[in-house]
């Protein structure tokens, strides 16, 4: 069975309480449960990781290659700042899909820059929790295509 890890960046542990008008009212726990249900339907294994610490996300990405077939990541604020996370994604050979709840291009200027997008297999943003589900679907699709080769 193919396995996917979903990595949530800083402050996403506060989802459901944090800036609800932008990020909605669903908690991270509920988002993860929704993703787990979707993964089950798709027939893939799923694991979750959240950290507020940049280096921990770098470590998780590096280790992911050994255990997982793909990554879905919402790097949150590190999207716009982290060369280290972008480098870790470029360094690993499994596909990484970038997702955001909000439309990062419709907000402040500084959110328009993503260090992650150029090294991501694909990017989904602006659909709230659906962004994660679409990102998962995209990752599953990529793995299915690879299998056929
Ligand atoms: C976010 C967008 C980022 O700009 C922000 O820093 C976040 C969440 C999103 O999911 O919309 O924390 O990644």
How would you explain this protein's 3D organization?
The chain has 149 residues and is α/β, with parallel strands linked by helices. The chain has one domain (3-108, 122-148): Dehydroquinase, class II (Rossmann fold, 3-Layer(aba) Sandwich). It has 5 helices and 5 strands, in the order E-H-H-E-H-E-H-E-E-H. Strand 3 (70-74), helix 4 and strand 4 form a beta-alpha-beta unit. Helix 2 (28-42) runs parallel beside helix 5. The mean pLDDT is 96. It binds 1,3,4-trihydroxy-5-OXO-cyclohexanecarboxylic acid. 1,3,4-trihydroxy-5-OXO-cyclohexanecarboxylic acid binds at residues 11, 74, 76-77, 79, 100-102, 104, 111.
> Which structural class fits the helix and strand makeup?
alpha/beta
Shape: globular
Order of helices and strands: EHHEHEHEEH
Task: List segments where confidence is low: pLDDT < 50 over at least 5 consecutive residues.
Answer: none
């Amino acid at each position: 069975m193919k396995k996917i890890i979903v990595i949530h960046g800083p402050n996403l542990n506060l989802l459901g309480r944090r800036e609800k008008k932008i990020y909605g009212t669903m908690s991270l726990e509920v988002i993860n449960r929704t993703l787990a249900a979707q993964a089950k339907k798709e027939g893939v294994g799923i694991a979750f990781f959240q950290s507020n610490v940049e280096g921990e996300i770098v470590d998780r990405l590096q280790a992911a290659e050994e255990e997982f077939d793909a990554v879905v990541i919402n790097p949150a604020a590190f999207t716009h700042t982290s060369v280290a996370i972008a480098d870790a994604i470029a360094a690993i050979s499994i596909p990484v899909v970038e997702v955001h709840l909000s439309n990062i291009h419709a907000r402040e200027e500084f959110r328009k820059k993503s260090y992650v997008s150029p090294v991501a297999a694909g990017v989904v943003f602006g659909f709230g929790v659906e962004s994660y589900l679409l990102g998962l679907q995209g990752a599953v699709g990529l793995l299915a295509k690879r299998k056929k080769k």
